[in-house]
Amino acid sequence: MDRFEADAVAVGLINLKRNPIKGPFDAARLKETHRRIFGRVYPWAGEFHQGIGMMGKNRSGFVVAYDPSENVPTALDEAFTKLKAEGNLQGLDSARFAIRLAFYYSELDAIHPFREGNSRTLRAFTSDLAQAAGTGWNGRV
Length: 141
Fold this sequence. Notes:
The chain is mainly α. It has a single domain (2-133), classed as Fic-like fold (Orthogonal Bundle). 55% of the residues lie in helices and 7% in strands. The chain is built from 5 helices and 2 strands. It has helices spanning 2-18, 27-38, 72-85, 94-111, 118-133; strands at residues 55-59, 62-66.
């Protein structure tokens, strides 16, 4: 299953780059990004996790707690309202852009809207945001 997921996700990411999502940076776009990346793997791709309360994952020996599933829609609305108020980070110098992008990435990661694939989805989503902001950043570290 791990190999199938890795291959399917790689194809999804390539196709996403070839046919980028248009429109505002909002919850609908985040869902569409997830669906395009994971749609060949999971029938629930593109849907926020529901009814599971607070989620936790073991990360290198530490348990990281994520936002309860009940809070996902409201928390995303708040984050995307702030992002829009900041003009989707357009026109910032590279240092300020990096700081603000890190802030939004961490906010979206803490919300953790999907059952699986949050990090890969956020990397693709923030890469698109950077491209739209005219930074030339491609999402690679």
